[in-house]
Amino acid sequence: MNDFSFSMPTKVVFGRGMTDHTGSELASRGFKHALVVYGKGSVVRTGTLDRVLASLDAAGVAHTEFGGAQPNPSLAHARGGVEVARASGADVVLAVGGGSVIDTAKGIALGVPYQGDLWDLYTHAAEPVAEGKLPVACVLTIPAAGSEASASSVLTNEETHLKKGLSSELNRPVISVLDPELTFTLPAYQTAAGVTDMCAHILERFFSTSGPVPVTDQLDCGLIRAIISEAGRVMEDPECYDARANLMWAGTLAHNDLAGCGRGANGGRAGGWESHGMEHELSAHDPKVAHGAGLAVVMPAWMRYVWQSNPERFLTLGAGVFDIEPVDVVEDCIDATPEEAVEDAILATIDELQAFFCSIGMPRTLGELGFTADDIPAFLETLEQNKGAEFGQLQRLTMDDARAIYESCL
Ligand code: NZQ
Ligand code: ZN
């Protein structure tokens, strides 16, 4: 097991009706004025925003609203939010929404004390500073990105089609309100994209080059098993509170770094995040592509491309999640080599995972996302800008490898 440091500074307030406690939670921390960030209107239509504002009023917390964050949120919008935050005198940024809203809030919070262009922080031309940075709190409305407890914020520069993540411990929210009833209104497609994303957050960490870490490995496999079964229940009954609640908590655990403890090198985050890197190019080029849907296409293709670099990891996943083991070719008198049995088990594991994503409504191909072979050169161009000529951990990938993976998704 590798050395690691794990810190979960976010206070999670979880349960039915907790939305109405948002104001008292903020007030108990001494916050007096919240910049309330939200998205394209779902929280207005569902009444969630009104409930949050009412709870702020009841707790004596002033507020300024800043709506309009789009899915795959834009840098330009966050820049605007920095101006609004400064003018408002807010002492906390409260996101009411999903990952796109929370990431916008995180960008605004970091941007307030920085006198240069916000994008500098995402390109690492400048480092974020704690002094003057606003704390972030959130009321989560979709279990997916895990931003409610993660150290990341992801924004897209729409002028350059570059989607970049900024990882900093400063990004972790101080309070996250997780009220599973808010997710009853999610369209099935968004629920499924969120489920895929949380599986991917676990798998990116699981597929690091470190040797077995049984506690973390079994935690990961157990989480994915639970996500698969709870997703099935939600798809049958979108208002099943327990299933929604389990998915919500799984989404947080998938990405608060617990799922990678002991698997990261040099104390860093576990895994090479290859699929996320390749997906971000899809949703950067077409923001209508849901991040999770892009992952459903890219991740199985990446797995089929690299599994031979580390068959053991794939066998552990197959056994831990799907009860798939290689057949014993001698005992079962099978006309195959042991190597062929291993390959069959691994490919069956990847097929099962992809079949699960498809069963909940996720796409299998780039074509289903509206892309053709003609789009691949543009993905590769920005991928190289983001990742350099080679990237990845389980297997180093060149741009030719990335092209082959994208082409296998057509
Ligand atoms: O914009 P509104 O109208 O609010 O609608 C949203 C949006 O259309 C809707 N929605 C959210 N909650 C709802 C709801 N509709 C009905 N009822 C509800 N309760 O769902 C749509 C998707 O929302 P979004 O916030 O975009 O989803 P998600 O949480 O998947 O966030 C995706 C973004 O997070 C980034 C992704 O790249 C993408 O930009 N990620 C952020 C990470 C992080 N900060 O740690 C890690 C992830 O790997 C990911 O990269
Ligand atoms: Zn993700």
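^ zinc ion complex. The chain has two domains: 17-178, 188-408. The mean pLDDT is 97.
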